[in-house]
């Protein structure tokens, strides 16, 4: 299914708050914060010439967030950044002066952070980022996970010292429980989705994601003509689309939001013209995208700057995982988790449809940009779906680079 954006706000300027959050100065500030993080380095940008030729595109570039800050996902940029900002703001309030990130590890800031607990709900990657951020600043973290989150992903979060809390039901149920418990205990909720009255922290999370766009624009040989980005609640899609619109203006690329058919809350929202909560059905293999209600902030941005919305099926995502692990021609091998290649799966599906190709003006001159949003964050599941362990794919990558 495919839908062009027909919202009345389409192509209207961003809300001033969103423009400030996602603009050039904000991205520069995020990148400054990253210089104080261990393991910080720009993530790779890969070129897929063989796949581009097969799909009838000019070029395909993939930003590989599987290498981000040792967490294996773009989410490392968002939750931890928001935690750092929240702790520094609380320290500024208590100490009566502006506290910069350069003072993050000072005794005064560490003492204040030690008395704070941050909480969130997660499918896996956001919680890992929040827990890592809490550990980095010396705060406590409580992470709520729904019944569909694998034990491997829970363990990956717990290693950062987080208190893990299981919740029956879906991701949305875990969000509600995190808010309820945090309110009772005086914890600070660091969510990557927003709802009425709760917007600033999700904006900070989205702001953190702008760093990957800034990096990509420096790495790309030319500005892309098309961008396909996957969405759960819509945070990364809105951050990428919003930043590109603000930085590039009329030269911005055609932007397509890609979702799993089993969890297409933004597609349904775009179709209805207003935020829609969809019914929970069969779980999707794209576990990090299994969200049934959009972030209100993300929708506010995407209603203005997304050009189209589309969905992909389970087999589309798995096929891309396998294609990236076993590339053809001169394409590099890439480890993409179940949700990591969903944007690329959208491109593959679009290229196979003459109607969608025409609607998006996809041609042999198109320069397409996609994001591998996660590596193998659940190695056992990856091996089950791809038939190779992620370390075996990674070994082939290292061999090709040698």
Write a structural description:
This protein has 402 residues and is an alpha/beta fold. It has two domains: 274 residues, Rossmann fold, CATH 3.40.50; 113 residues, Rossmann fold. Helix content is 47%, strand content 14%. The protein is built from 17 helices and eleven strands. The strands form two sheets. Strands 1-10-9-8-11-3-2 form a seven-stranded mixed beta sheet, with helices on both faces. β8, α10 and β9 form a beta-alpha-beta unit. It is globular. The termini are far apart.
Would you spell out the secondary-structure blueprint of this structure?
Blueprint: E1 2-4, H1 16-22, H2 24-34, E2 45-47, H3 49-55, E3 59-64, H4 79-95, H5 107-114, E4 117-122, H6 125-137, E5 140-146, H7 151-158, E6 163-167, H8 171-185, E7 188-189, H9 200-219, E8 226-230, H10 235-248, E9 254-260, H11 265-272, H12 296-305, E10 308-312, H13 314-325, H14 342-351, H15 354-360, E11 367-372, H16 379-386, H17 390-401
Parallel strand pairs: 3-11, 4-5, 4-7, 5-6, 8-9, 8-11, 9-10
Antiparallel strand pairs: 1-10, 2-3
């Amino acid at each position: 299914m495919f839908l062009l954006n027909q919202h009345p706000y389409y192509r209207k300027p961003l809300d001033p708050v969103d423009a400030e959050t996602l603009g050039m100065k904000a991205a520069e500030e995020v990148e400054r914060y990253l210089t104080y993080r261990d393991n910080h380095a720009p993530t790779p940008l890969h070129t897929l010439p063989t796949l581009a030729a097969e799909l009838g595109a000019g070029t395909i570039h993939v930003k590989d967030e599987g290498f981000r800050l040792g967490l294996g996902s773009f989410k490392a940029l968002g939750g931890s950044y928001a935690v750092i900002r929240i702790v520094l703001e609380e320290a500024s309030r208590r100490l009566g002066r502006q506290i910069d990130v350069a003072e993050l590890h000072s005794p005064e800031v560490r003492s204040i952070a030690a008395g704070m607990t941050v909480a969130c709900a997660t499918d896996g990657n956001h919680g890992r980022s929040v827990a890592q951020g809490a550990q980095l600043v010396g705060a406590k973290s409580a992470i709520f996970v729904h019944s569909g989150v694998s034990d491997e992903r829970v363990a990956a979060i717990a290693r950062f010292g987080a208190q893990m809390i299981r919740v029956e039901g879906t991701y949305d149920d875990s969000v509600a429980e995190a808010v309820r418990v945090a309110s009772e205990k005086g914890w600070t909720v660091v969510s990557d989705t927003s709802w009425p009255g709760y917007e600033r922290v999700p904006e900070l999370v989205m702001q953190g994601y702008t760093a990957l766009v800034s990096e990509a624009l420096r790495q790309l040989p030319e500005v892309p003509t098309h961008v396909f980005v996957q969405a759960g609640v819509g945070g990364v899609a809105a951050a990428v689309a919003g930043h590109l619109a603000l930085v590039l203006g009329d030269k911005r690329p055609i932007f397509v939001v890609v979702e799993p058919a089993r969890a297409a809350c933004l597609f349904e929202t775009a179709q209805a013209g207003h935020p829609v909560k969809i019914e929970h059905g069969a779980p999707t293999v794209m576990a990090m995208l299994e969200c049934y209600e959009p972030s209100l902030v993300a929708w506010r941005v995407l209603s203005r700057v997304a050009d189209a919305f589309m969905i992909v099926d389970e087999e589309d995502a798995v096929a891309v995982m396998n294609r990236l692990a076993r590339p053809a021609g001169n394409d590099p091998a890439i480890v993409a988790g179940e949700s990591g290649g969903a944007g690329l799966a959208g491109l593959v599906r679009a290229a196979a449809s003459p109607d969608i190709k025409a609607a998006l003006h996809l041609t042999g001159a198109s320069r397409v940009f996609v994001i591998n949003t996660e590596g193998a964050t659940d190695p056992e599941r990856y091996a089950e779906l791809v038939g190779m362990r992620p370390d075996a794919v990674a070994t082939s990558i290292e061999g090709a680079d040698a």
